[in-house]
Amino acid sequence: MAASISACSSTGCWSETGNPLYASLGPYPSFETTYVNGINTTVTGVVFMVVHNSLGQTVEISTCVLQLASGANGTAYTITFGLASGEYSATFFAVSTSGYAISSTTTAPFTV
């Protein structure tokens, strides 16, 4: 039976193990975000990265799917692609495949 996660709490969430890291994944610029599953069952989650430009406009959305056993950690690699040179901020969060929040939200600035 799948877990029913109605709200994210400190004892029932995926927690980031550090800040998102802007790096390359092969030829692609990406962010690495590592999560640990604090929920007492295996959970498949979708990690979202929402990128905003310096005007606050959403210019990109990237996703990555992770399946984590209870207590396990894993790294999501969300790709940034085709952004013009400039200052941006990326917001990260994870939801279950049912659409429930399973992480807190983190924002990281970056420059292309």
Shape: elongated
Q: Structural class of the helices, strands and pairings?
A: mainly beta
User: β content, as a range?
Assistant: over 45%
Give Rg in angstroms.
14 Å
Largest sheet: 4 strands, antiparallel
Can you describe what's shown?
The protein is mainly β and 112 residues long. It has a single domain, classed as Immunoglobulin-like (Sandwich), CATH 2.60.40.10. It is 0% helix and 56% strand. It is built from no helices and eight strands. The strands form two sheets. Strands 1, 2, 3 and 6 form a four-stranded antiparallel sheet that branches. A four-stranded antiparallel sheet has the order 5-4-7-8, with no helix packed on it.
Describe the structure concisely for a colleague.
This protein has 112 residues and is mainly β. Helix content is 0%, strand content 56%.
Give the tags.
112 residues, mainly beta, Immunoglobulin-like, 4-stranded antiparallel sheet, disordered N terminus
Topology diagram in text:
Elements: E1 14-16, E2 21-25, E3 28-37, E4 43-53, E5 58-68, E6 73-79, E7 87-96, E8 106-111
Antiparallel strand pairs: 1-3, 2-3, 3-6, 4-5, 4-7, 7-8
